[in-house]
Amino acid sequence: MQRLLSGSARLLPLGLRCEQAVSSGIVKAPSNFTTRGYAAVATDSSDRQHGWQLGAAAAVALATAGLGSWLLLDPQTSHCEEVQLASAGQTKKRKAPLPEIHAEDVAAHNNKERGVWVTYKDGVYDVTDFLEMHPGGASRLMLAAGGAIDPFWAMYQQHNQEEIKSLLEGYRIGSLVGGQDMSQQVADPYSNEPKRHPALVVRSQKPFNAETPAELLTGKLYTPNDLFYVRNHLPVPAVDPAAYTLRVEGEGLRTIELSLKDLRTKFKRHTISATLQCAGNRRTEMSSLKDIKGTVWAAGAIGNAEWSGVNLKDVLEYAGLDERSEAEAEHVQFEGLDSDMEGVCYGASIPIEEAVYKGADVLLAYEMNGRPLSKDHGFPVRVIAPGIVGARNVKWLSRIITSKEESQSHWQQHDYKSFSPNTDYDNVDWESAPAIQEPNVTSAICEPENNTAVSTSEGTIPVKGFAYSGGGHSVIRVDVSADHGKTWTVAELSSVPAKRSRAWSWTLWQAEVPMPKEHTGSIELICKATDNAYNTQPDSVAGVWNLRGVLNNAWHRVKLQVQEE
Amino acid sequence: MQRLLSGSARLLPLGLRCEQAVSSGIVKAPSNFTTRGYAAVATDSSDRQHGWQLGAAAAVALATAGLGSWLLLDPQTSHCEEVQLASAGQTKKRKAPLPEIHAEDVAAHNNKERGVWVTYKDGVYDVTDFLEMHPGGASRLMLAAGGAIDPFWAMYQQHNQEEIKSLLEGYRIGSLVGGQDMSQQVADPYSNEPKRHPALVVRSQKPFNAETPAELLTGKLYTPNDLFYVRNHLPVPAVDPAAYTLRVEGEGLRTIELSLKDLRTKFKRHTISATLQCAGNRRTEMSSLKDIKGTVWAAGAIGNAEWSGVNLKDVLEYAGLDERSEAEAEHVQFEGLDSDMEGVCYGASIPIEEAVYKGADVLLAYEMNGRPLSKDHGFPVRVIAPGIVGARNVKWLSRIITSKEESQSHWQQHDYKSFSPNTDYDNVDWESAPAIQEPNVTSAICEPENNTAVSTSEGTIPVKGFAYSGGGHSVIRVDVSADHGKTWTVAELSSVPAKRSRAWSWTLWQAEVPMPKEHTGSIELICKATDNAYNTQPDSVAGVWNLRGVLNNAWHRVKLQVQEE
């Protein structure tokens, strides 16, 4: 029943660590085995094919999933290796009927010494050996030890994939007595989600992630609130504005609590224009090169708005920030009211100089384009750290902490970082890269869309798009080419650049690009932007590919179909 | 005698404006003539071939040089066009013996109404029609009107090329009576030049421009003073330290004058490490793609030093800078003691926020690596604006001016800017691009050198280089590839990144890159750096090529020769 994988191999969603799998002896690799460049494939008892890339990780997945015999395929050479399992115990176990297990027995297996058991629906699973391979960390999985994982999977819906369920089945040791279910009826964490505009392109429902259709981006400088991309990491929290308080504390500050009324009356109101962009915007171009774990964004996870609120610096000074405390604190941490099942809230931080230098434009915003923040955009108060990547613009803000260290949250420490194209989950050192703050210079073609038909009778092709650079850098030029970069047309920019180091808003642009004389039935449009530090976009995605698929700022390309006339 | 140019066409050194040439009627172009993509060629009376790119500019050059018949060659299609001269008067004139002219007659032709004549050695030239085509501007050429251009050419030695002399000959109307020479014996403006270290790679003697050999760059974090690259725009001025005064004035300031002793005693001494890089560093890679006017730099127009002096902010505050005047002034201008024949000094400016934000690290430096500044590096005082391109770090500092406008100097307004690859001297709008301030992220391989032999018996290739990014951005990663970017090795960085927004020094790096299994007799090493804004270098030079050849930060490539063993 062994078959080679047809088509492209799929990435193992949980990103198991290959070297660990080999060194732990779960997999005994051939002597010339490396952890790179392999795809694995097997066929399960229902004759369904399963395939993964990532070398030995695939072996682990297939072995632990009890899928029986399997192969490793080197996609470069098409050479096929049979790899021996050091222990095929679990596979053998499957042959005997699985026992029924009492819920009390499961509950007693809640530690590493006795073993860590969990249930999913009526299945019982011994995940002791999987703990250290859990991509979310052993400690998070331990929260379910001795109980049901169902509510956790309701929260983290990325588990709801066939591959994950299949992986779990490999750890099955029995069924609950009488087919019972240990999962208590927990309130749906997603009960507070608002209605969304149907034009948004939904990339994930829970948590809600959706982008603006490209052709709606370039209509006006300010993206309408209802069409602005949404990137939630957790369920939208229910907030009672009357009871809302913002706690401010930390290095060099006295601890204070501010109500919404305090924020509106004790501090001067400021308004700035600023672009927000998800670090994963344009990830899909990276995924098409090599699979990536993460929300599949096209180019619409970006938007620009006019934000009103109070100045973070004013609030920090109200709480006692002065030159001495500025020197003590190096970061400003933010916590949101959105939290997971363990009560761990979303968190991020920015360097304190962003709050106190460069015009000190970081806002605690309560309005977006002249209207109160909507639920999806952080009602009642969110951070707007202009020039900084979206992930640090914490929504539903509950707490501000000045500190010597940056936020220790998962999203600051183990996500939203980029690495070399050769770094993957089996060799990544998260501490080796800084948390993304100001994003790199980027641009994208919004019109025409991919695969639009153009006629050779047209002398020029009208092209529209956006361009943006982080850190207050203004975009000074956008070049567009229809002949693979042989010639470039300089686009007309929509806006006069803002003050040199405080260009927080994107630039919309348009160009009339000469129809190339030579083509092969299709034309590729390319755009690239240059900012006022004369940084520009790299030519190809391959050089900036990274395991998280973040900050893809390669030249943006759109293919058009040519109709001869 | 018409011949097509063999080999690559050469750029017209003076960058004449094609459209102007066509529109002024000097050249009558074919109806389908465009000012792009043409090369021109002609053969002179000595049977030497002359060729230029740049469309009609070439026509002008050849016509005015009196070279007789000529052709335009489209290098794309190899199609050849014969272009008619609207006026071939000068060519005809050559046939009659040229008259002898009195110096008094030359002196009387010093305005556009009567005509603008100049002399060079014993030749007399009517340059009236050339005035508007002079790349340095008509006004600069007018300074020589009615007199000798010899001393100007002694100052601006870029004129001393065969093409320029040939161009001038086309304007010849006679010879001075008795072969006399109008050029007065002027003092050699380059009489104060210091001795230089013989290891420097000299790119121009007058003004002196020289770079550090690549293999000497990566030896230590601080480049030795004597080996530090030198980029002079004008002769080195003679400065008497006892008589030296620095004038400080402008928006919101009282005018003050400070002696060297004042600087050393009235202000606190500060020391910073900072990298300086010429905007033209790595120009040679751009020139090899398409000719460029400018000093031919390899990758050694960069260096790093420890600079000591006083804080610019302290001096500005001493002269009365406060929050109100900060708001009024937007730029800080600097003037050097180096000046041209008209007394116009070198000048540049930086945005005032560079002087007052980001730790306010801009120095008026009097020491370099613990020793007084040398003559070549700005004795007695120079600006060190860390994170800012070399050209704004004015040497031999004489004057500081706070102002609403940036410096109006040639080097701020009409040089040290970059444009789209399709922008050339015939369509450039200098105002459309900002003056370079913080340079983009870059890196280069210093060892091994180009064409080094490597043996296949080696498992890895040791590679060393530098990486740097402007604006206080730290380099967070350098990737090196020996297989055209299929795989990358992450280099080891020499230094821990400095405080987030104040990384003023370069990073040295080294990597052991696996010897690729496949090669074609040679291997291309590639490096690329990424900074903490996750900006990275573009893949190819073509996309960043610009008419001034500045800020080339494409992936750096070094070719190695493989010896099979």
Automatic annotation (TrEMBL), chains A, B:
<dbReference type="InterPro" id="IPR036374">
    <property type="entry name" value="OxRdtase_Mopterin-bd_sf"/>
</dbReference>
<dbReference type="Pfam" id="PF00173">
    <property type="entry name" value="Cyt-b5"/>
</dbReference>
<dbReference type="GO" id="GO:0020037">
    <property type="term" value="F:heme binding"/>
</dbReference>
<protein>
    <recommendedName>
        <fullName>sulfite oxidase</fullName>
        <ecNumber>1.8.3.1</ecNumber>
    </recommendedName>
</protein>
<dbReference type="InterPro" id="IPR014756">
    <property type="entry name" value="Ig_E-set"/>
</dbReference>
<comment type="subunit">
    <text>Homodimer.</text>
</comment>
<dbReference type="InterPro" id="IPR018506">
    <property type="entry name" value="Cyt_B5_heme-BS"/>
</dbReference>
<keyword id="KW-0496">Mitochondrion</keyword>
<dbReference type="InterPro" id="IPR036400">
    <property type="entry name" value="Cyt_B5-like_heme/steroid_sf"/>
</dbReference>
<dbReference type="InterPro" id="IPR022407">
    <property type="entry name" value="OxRdtase_Mopterin_BS"/>
</dbReference>
<dbReference type="Pfam" id="PF00174">
    <property type="entry name" value="Oxidored_molyb"/>
</dbReference>
<keyword id="KW-0479">Metal-binding</keyword>
<dbReference type="GO" id="GO:0043546">
    <property type="term" value="F:molybdopterin cofactor binding"/>
</dbReference>
<dbReference type="GO" id="GO:0008482">
    <property type="term" value="F:sulfite oxidase activity"/>
</dbReference>
<keyword id="KW-0349">Heme</keyword>
<feature type="domain" description="Cytochrome b5 heme-binding">
    <location>
        <begin position="98"/>
        <end position="177"/>
    </location>
</feature>
<comment type="pathway">
    <text>Energy metabolism; sulfur metabolism.</text>
</comment>
<keyword id="KW-0560">Oxidoreductase</keyword>
<dbReference type="InterPro" id="IPR001199">
    <property type="entry name" value="Cyt_B5-like_heme/steroid-bd"/>
</dbReference>
<keyword id="KW-0408">Iron</keyword>
<dbReference type="GO" id="GO:0006790">
    <property type="term" value="P:sulfur compound metabolic process"/>
</dbReference>
<dbReference type="InterPro" id="IPR008335">
    <property type="entry name" value="Mopterin_OxRdtase_euk"/>
</dbReference>
<dbReference type="GO" id="GO:0005758">
    <property type="term" value="C:mitochondrial intermembrane space"/>
</dbReference>
<keyword id="KW-0500">Molybdenum</keyword>
<dbReference type="GO" id="GO:0030151">
    <property type="term" value="F:molybdenum ion binding"/>
</dbReference>
<dbReference type="InterPro" id="IPR005066">
    <property type="entry name" value="MoCF_OxRdtse_dimer"/>
</dbReference>
<dbReference type="InterPro" id="IPR000572">
    <property type="entry name" value="OxRdtase_Mopterin-bd_dom"/>
</dbReference>
<dbReference type="Pfam" id="PF03404">
    <property type="entry name" value="Mo-co_dimer"/>
</dbReference>
